[in-house]
Amino acid sequence: MDTSSKENTQLFSKNSVQPVERPSFKTEHPSSEEKQPCCGELKVFLGALSFVYFAKALAEGYLKSTITQIERRFDIPSSLVGVIDGSFEIGNLLVITFVSYFGAKLHRPKIIGAGCLIMGVGTLLIAMPQFFMERYRYERHSLSSNSTLSISPCLLESNSQLPISVMEKPQSKRSNGCVQTVAIIGPIFGFLLGSLCAKLYVDIGFVNLDHITITPKDPQWVGAWWLGYLIAGTVSLLAAVPFWCLPKSLPRPRSREHSNSSSEKSKFIMDDHTDCRTPLGGKAKIMEMARDFLPSLKSLFGNPVYFLYLCASTVQFNSLFGMVTYKPKYIEQQYGQSSSEANFVIGLINIPAVALGIFSGGIVMKKFRISVCGAAKLYLGSSVLGYLLFLSLFTLGCENSDVAGLTVSYQGTKPVSYHERALFSDCNSRCKCSETKWEPMCGENGITYASACLAGCQTSTGSGKTTIFYNCTCVGIAASKSGNSSGMVGRCQKDNGCPKMFLYFLIISVITSYTLSLGGIPGYILLLRCIKPQLKSFALGIYTLAVRVLAGLVNYLFFLQLIDTSCLKWGFKRCGSRGSCRLYDSNAFRHMYLGLTMMLGTVSIFLSTAVLFTLKKNYVSKHRSFRTKRERTMGSTRIRKENFTTSDHLLQPSYWPGKETQL
């Protein structure tokens, strides 16, 4: 309690301000009574703002965790999912500049509350397609669920090529550090919620789960992606309630009214009496405020340190957003993990490392009282070390799964090309198979086949997840033992060394995330100190806009377009158009995902270096001009004193009464 009260006190004034005189007991008691309502309102504001940050971060984190689920549910390519994900930033693009400029002069709590309502309704709308579309239909191996019936997949494929849906059931069924910390906790819960929902089948409550023949590790599995959006939307709506009860501004405590200096936080949150007498106060008109918009924008971009830092941050966030957003997909495709496991790992390991790094950076800045140049050096150093560690991830990949006709030939050797006609071979030439279907079957030889038909299987027994195929001619020619030509539903697991590689990947990824996030607070301090105080709110709005749009919307399209080029096997919709990717080339995926991240990180390092040199140049020049001005002032003062002494000596008479006594 003592620590929190001390931090809240810092919102009103700097710690260095001390009262000149000790007040009496009578004046001290009523001032403490008047101070209580203000502190109470301030705590309510901080608590509500922290909850808003949590709700927003929860929705964003959950959105990242459902990219793969949305891609599979609607059978769309990754590039289109990037457009959907990037559309989250379009709202920021439309309003953030004006909100950051006019919001500082209007009723802030109500503006925040209105934003929460819009965000909550929008989040709920994302889940609505689930309730208006037909049930999810995935490709199945057989038409029968009778476990005693022996069928021929090879002949079955030639008669029916449409996917079969499952059997349905009836429809009846405390301070500014506090705020940033909660903003980091939000994505943790978002990814954990995504992990939980990914384990649940998409149509849970609407279908009979006993007839589901795929598992969460299957490329066709779709989790209950819509459930988390209902939860996140409800949380956002609840976060809006307190702001409609807060005043426009918080009154300044009487003990601080006559302070000559006040903290940056108090100027931002509290009502300053000097601002009320300016034409830009609460009664100012919108047109009067709008006149200063373009001059303020020109002043910001005319600041070289701010402009270079804006460019460096935009490029770096391009790198970081791409790395975080598509890390679940990378873990799934590279290490054979399920979507639920990938989201769980990111939410429980990676994001806490980021939170710890940001916290550590703030502690270092506060403990050692690092200057602006020191903050720029720490920001640059964390980037350099972090991306050097990131380089080691190139060596921690798994080889492609052995898939007949795509990554290996039907004889078990590496293919010359990835042409789709390689799916057909002499062993399945008599079977009229579809090359567009993806119904993976794992042979006893450790090779995955695109379907039981393409494996040349003649008979099968069992149903659902327990289906076993026999007399598979293509499995027999590549089997290590003669006559071992059976297989089972699903893809074969990655090689034995892949789990160890995944463990190493997690360790390096955590260290890298911690190192890169160390520069978060120093960079933020650098941003605030390089601009004029009256432009801080506007500068932060422009900064957020640039990061959201240039490092968000453009990044999604760029990353996913390259990722799509590494696809080996595309799925197809019932109408015949191309759907989502079923199998990626692990090596190509790794080089594109890590390579693009590393390339953008390198560019950001060069821009950060330019920020440091520009800052040093401006600092040295200002320091020299200050020294020169001070020397001139001291020199003129000394000359004036000497002239005054000389003139005073000349005006004095040679003798006056009492001269000897005084001497």
TrEMBL record:
<keyword id="KW-0406">Ion transport</keyword>
<dbReference type="GO" id="GO:0043252">
    <property type="term" value="P:sodium-independent organic anion transport"/>
</dbReference>
<dbReference type="InterPro" id="IPR036058">
    <property type="entry name" value="Kazal_dom_sf"/>
</dbReference>
<keyword id="KW-0472">Membrane</keyword>
<dbReference type="InterPro" id="IPR036259">
    <property type="entry name" value="MFS_trans_sf"/>
</dbReference>
<feature type="compositionally biased region" description="Polar residues">
    <location>
        <begin position="1"/>
        <end position="18"/>
    </location>
</feature>
<dbReference type="GO" id="GO:0015125">
    <property type="term" value="F:bile acid transmembrane transporter activity"/>
</dbReference>
<comment type="similarity">
    <text>Belongs to the organo anion transporter (TC 2.A.60) family.</text>
</comment>
<keyword id="KW-1015">Disulfide bond</keyword>
<dbReference type="GO" id="GO:0015347">
    <property type="term" value="F:sodium-independent organic anion transmembrane transporter activity"/>
</dbReference>
<dbReference type="InterPro" id="IPR004156">
    <property type="entry name" value="OATP"/>
</dbReference>
<dbReference type="Pfam" id="PF03137">
    <property type="entry name" value="OATP"/>
</dbReference>
<feature type="transmembrane region" description="Helical">
    <location>
        <begin position="540"/>
        <end position="563"/>
    </location>
</feature>
<feature type="transmembrane region" description="Helical">
    <location>
        <begin position="177"/>
        <end position="202"/>
    </location>
</feature>
<keyword id="KW-0445">Lipid transport</keyword>
<feature type="region of interest" description="Disordered">
    <location>
        <begin position="1"/>
        <end position="35"/>
    </location>
</feature>
<dbReference type="InterPro" id="IPR002350">
    <property type="entry name" value="Kazal_dom"/>
</dbReference>
<dbReference type="Pfam" id="PF07648">
    <property type="entry name" value="Kazal_2"/>
</dbReference>
<feature type="transmembrane region" description="Helical">
    <location>
        <begin position="376"/>
        <end position="396"/>
    </location>
</feature>
<feature type="transmembrane region" description="Helical">
    <location>
        <begin position="592"/>
        <end position="615"/>
    </location>
</feature>
<feature type="transmembrane region" description="Helical">
    <location>
        <begin position="80"/>
        <end position="99"/>
    </location>
</feature>
<keyword id="KW-1003">Cell membrane</keyword>
<keyword id="KW-0812">Transmembrane</keyword>
<keyword id="KW-0813">Transport</keyword>
<protein>
    <recommendedName>
        <fullName>Solute carrier organic anion transporter family member</fullName>
    </recommendedName>
</protein>
<dbReference type="GO" id="GO:0016323">
    <property type="term" value="C:basolateral plasma membrane"/>
</dbReference>
<feature type="transmembrane region" description="Helical">
    <location>
        <begin position="344"/>
        <end position="364"/>
    </location>
</feature>
<feature type="transmembrane region" description="Helical">
    <location>
        <begin position="222"/>
        <end position="246"/>
    </location>
</feature>
<feature type="compositionally biased region" description="Basic and acidic residues">
    <location>
        <begin position="23"/>
        <end position="35"/>
    </location>
</feature>
<keyword id="KW-0325">Glycoprotein</keyword>
<feature type="transmembrane region" description="Helical">
    <location>
        <begin position="501"/>
        <end position="528"/>
    </location>
</feature>
<dbReference type="GO" id="GO:0006811">
    <property type="term" value="P:monoatomic ion transport"/>
</dbReference>
<feature type="transmembrane region" description="Helical">
    <location>
        <begin position="111"/>
        <end position="132"/>
    </location>
</feature>
<keyword id="KW-1133">Transmembrane helix</keyword>
<feature type="domain" description="Kazal-like">
    <location>
        <begin position="421"/>
        <end position="476"/>
    </location>
</feature>
<feature type="transmembrane region" description="Helical">
    <location>
        <begin position="306"/>
        <end position="324"/>
    </location>
</feature>
